[in-house]
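Archive maintenance. Older records in this collection stored only the sequence; we are now back-filling the structure field for every entry so that each record is complete. The fields below show one back-filled record exactly as it appears after the update. Entries are processed alphabetically, and ATP-grasp domain-containing protein is next in the queue.

ARCHIVE ENTRY
Title: ATP-grasp domain-containing protein
Organism field: Caenispirillum salinarum AK4
Length field: 433
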Amino acid sequence: MTTDKTNIFVLGLDPFNERMCETIRNSADYHFHPLLDPDEVAFAETYDVPDLLSKARADLDSFEEPVHGIISWWDFPSTSMLPLLRGERDLPGPTLESVLRCEHKAWSRLIQKEHLPECTPEFDVVNPDEVQDWGDLKVTPPFFLKPVKAHSSFLGFMIHSEEEWKEAIEEIRENIHHFAEPFNYFLERADLPEDIRKLDGRHCIAEDVIGGRQATLECFVHEGKTEVYGVIDSINEPNGVSFRAYRYPSELPQGIQDRMIEAAKKWAEVAGLDNTPFNIEFFWDEEKDKLWVLEINSRMSKSHCPLFAMVDGASHQQVAVMLSTGRHPEMPYREGRFPVAAKYMMRVYENAEVTHAPTDDEINALQRECDCYIRMEVEDGQRLDELIDQDSYSYEVGVVFLGGNDFDDVDAKYERLREKLPLELTPVDEEGA
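Back-filled structure field:
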């Protein structure tokens, strides 16, 4: 029986973000359908892309009502699957090639070097299977080394010495297949320049260390016009790699935000993005008044959904949903319950075993008491080194979303919550493990 609701399929629909979908305007007009499980597209040990696409196509083909849109808020491989699944059904969305210009870190840097040279650090492409001599690199230590396709800082290393370089190359060589093999599936199906086709997913990029105040611009392109609807500050841990918090709205000077916005619009044009959300991460070196592009993602950030809901009154899933059905997105502005909001990543820096993870009842009680959202990433009996897609320096055991009157207020709320959170960890004896 056909309903009057708009049917939106979501790659990796999870309970937490499904709840966020309820905050978008006119949410009752939509029916959100799961398309593959989050464990298949976000937390898998391996990604069998042909099998994932086959399952997704079967689910879509068996649906007896119209499919009005397909979206996702997860990173790769969802970002590259969407153009294929949408294209087969003539649904709005970006081309695979435009997505890969964002997702392929080396290709993205080469384009940035041509069109945004003032924002592009020195970099070099590295093949870990044919390691070039340390002294032949264009970059000098310290520099950052990472695969051309990964996320969550997976296999990302800060390199200070030749010894660290050799150790990182060895670890990358052993584990790069996790993203390289599925990424190559999409590269083989895209219309690529010959020089880019040679840089498959088993390559890495080494680039100068850039820094400063970090911010992410949430943007979209609709029928060739780019708009930026939010700027979020990223706060790092002391190691300079792991994130501590995301804060919305940004506290950067408006003039700096305007310069970032102009660069984001230029990128969307040269990358050929259209009918899609995307975000772009910048550093502002305040001392030199210099902007650097850190990374570009061809998707909206799920991490920012509760922040927009708390401050503006609707999750920015609203942008993805409207674009997926061919409409110009409209977001409310400052209609939320709080002037500011933040996401905190709860991190542990040594391996441990979870002897007690907060139960659903404990989490729900804390959420009511502290007026927040909590999502735990661990369970009883789990070792932290079993967590998937962690950065190279820490373990993310959970996240917390909080709103407040200002960021001092939110920080204080977070510290009180951490003291009350019933998470118990026992250090692991690595030598005896």
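Update note: Residues 234 and 246 are 5 Å apart (CA to CA). The two ends are 57 Å apart (CA to CA).
Entry marked complete.
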